[in-house]
Amino acid sequence: MKKRLLLVVVVVLILALAVPSALAITDSQHSKLHELYQQEHNLHQQIIDAQSEAGIITAEDAAEMKEHLSKQWEYRQQLMQEGNYGFGHGLRRRGNGIMRGGGCYGHGRYYQ
């Protein structure tokens, strides 16, 4: 009986701490994060253009990468509208533990 009561109290405390932090983002923080992610997106496009101009990648590869980047940006915008800013490097991890799997760069010519 005491174990169950203790378990219930622990779960309630965890939820009480998790809910306020999940709802803590303000409109100004939302705007700032969106602006920064927009800058990141634009920078990635500029990097792809510079690599293509330098001959590091072909024009076809650049077009593919920019198309992928565009789809990724649409998905990120959808997540941000839902209030989810938890995307980042963790979404790209694959495999089963340390150094297993290829990560974002090991399963194709560029990140997928």
What does this structure look like?
- The chain is an all-alpha fold and 112 residues long.
- The protein has a domain at 29-85.
- Helix content is 64%, strand content 0%.
- The chain has 3 helices and no strands.
- The chain has helices at 2-22, 27-54, 59-81.
- Helix 2 runs antiparallel to helix 3 (59-81).
- The longest helix has 28 residues, at 27-54.
State mean pLDDT (0 to 100 scale): 77
Distance between the termini: 50 Å
The tally of strands reads 0
Question: How would you describe the oligomerization state of the chains in this entry?
Answer: single chain
Uncertain segments: none
Sheet-strand content, in percent, reads under 5%
H-E order: HHH
Radius of gyration: 20 Å
Report the biggest beta sheet as strand number plus sense, adding barrel if it closes.
none
Structural class: mainly alpha
Q: What best-fitting shape do the alpha-carbon axes yield? A: elongated
What level of helicity do the residues show?
55-70%
Total helical elements: 3
What is this structure, in a nutshell?
By secondary structure, this protein is mainly alpha-helical. It contains three helices and no strands.
